[in-house]
Amino acid sequence: MSTEKPRSLLRLEYEKAAEEYLRSLPLEHFMEATSQATQRKITLESLDLVHARRPDVQVFNELLVQYPAGRQRKPRQVVPDNMIVVWKEPIKAKGSFDLPLQPTGPFCVMEYVSKYTQRKDYDDNFVCYERELKVPYYLLFYPDEEELTLYRHTGRRYVTVTPNEHGRYPISELELEVALLDGWVRYWYQGKLLPLPAELQRDLDEARRQADEAARRAEEAGRRADEAARRAEEAGRRADEATRRAEEEHQARLAAEQELAQLRAQLDQARRPRRNSS
């Protein structure tokens, strides 16, 4: 299919090809193993967090990719389980990702192979990604065997990516790393594991629990502080009362001593012999 045709005509032809592809799919194609669905869910949830920080990293789920195939009238077609496209503007792809009509091609494709479903010819897909589309990265995961391989395109062919010092496979252009964790492909961004919603909810619940506990302890500490202040105020009041009483007793003692001194003086005066007047 020639790319020299008007874009409007080319778009119509690709839309028709996508519709024909959809109608040709057997019912078995829509059957998916639980492991495949789980891994796609993990990938979408993880990379949504990357997209929030880097809007140019756009993730698609089972989107039909169509591209010219030499002199063939119909485009070649392939459907990766997940696909990353790196572009600064939002990618507009409704029913299919038609390469001649898009500003860029796939940057990374991911496929998850289960022995319980055989919906795709993965050998044929490998050829599409390596020789025809030359997708920079290809992730292949066998969940039943917990086997993960990441391929990087050299410009001529795919080579396997070796793990780094952390045992993770880097996609340096995206600051991403991938590795198996608890039997699933997980993603690290800028060296930190990207959490899943269930993990975020668990952490949120724990943070709330800790916050509630801290609030309870603060309330208890406030109550104890109020009680201590009340006791201190009561002790102060009693101390003031004792001081007042002590002052009153001191004043009374002084008054009594003065009165006693006066009485003694009077008594001494009374005891002195009186002189007779001549």
What does this structure look like?
Strands 1-4-6-7-8-9 form a six-stranded mixed beta sheet, with helices on both faces. The protein is α+β, with helices and mostly antiparallel strands. The longest helix is centred in the C-terminal third of the chain and has 75 residues. The protein is built from four helices and 13 strands.
Low-confidence stretches: none
Strand content: 15-25%
The tally of strands reads: 13
H/E series, N to C? Answer: HHEEEEEEHEEEEEEEH
How far is it from the N-terminal to the C-terminal residue, by CA?
164 Å
Short descriptors:
single chain, 278 residues, alpha+beta, six-stranded mixed β-sheet, four-stranded antiparallel β-sheet, 4 helices, 13 strands, 45% helix, rod-shaped
